# Entry
Amino acid sequence: MKIGVLGTGVVGQTIGSKLVNLGHEVMMGAREPDNPKAVAWSKDMGAQHALFGNFANAAEFGEIIFNCTLGTASLGALRMAGENNLKGKILIDTSNPLDYSTQLWNLTVCNTDSLGEQIQREFPQTFVVKSLNTINADVMVNPTRLAERSDVFLSGNSQDAKAKVTKLLKDFGWKSVVDLGDITTSRGVEMYVILWRCFRLAVSSYHFNIKLIQSA
# Structure
């Protein structure tokens, strides 16, 4: 499958590398088509299946798109990617609307709205699925590094899109994928990230996650 990855940071490179290793063709997109991080990633992964370009190039290339940009920059990056290039495609949004100016972080949008919803409203003909935003990058693509099975979540308005994303998540190694409901449930997983930050300050590792446990 051809997959576009928007963003050249740790999340974009980690997900992009995993997708290439799974046999997908991946194009990493940045603001500039010759972004040094994207160029270096392509060279390290083998340029034949790890391509690079600008946001619009990657969005046009991909059958499925991953948004791995900073939450505060996501809407701008997606506008650069282009509405027509995103139309009719699944957009997996891994971003969080975070303000890092305090130790505990803050959300720039919450309670009555979410970044996932904002993206869906601005791109109504794109199938936005919020997922993978509740865990560290290397756990996103390697959940078995944790001592116990844990959960990954998804939110979105299209059942078909969520089914396709679930398959991809299972290819990443996730055994338990919890469908929270429509895109408004992005509010919950985005707000959880503040608690994730508290966990991170309390423990000595990034490698942790949560598990939904129901009564017997």
About this structure: The longest helix spans residues 186-202. The chain has a mean pLDDT of 97. Residues 178 and 187 are 15 Å apart (CA to CA).
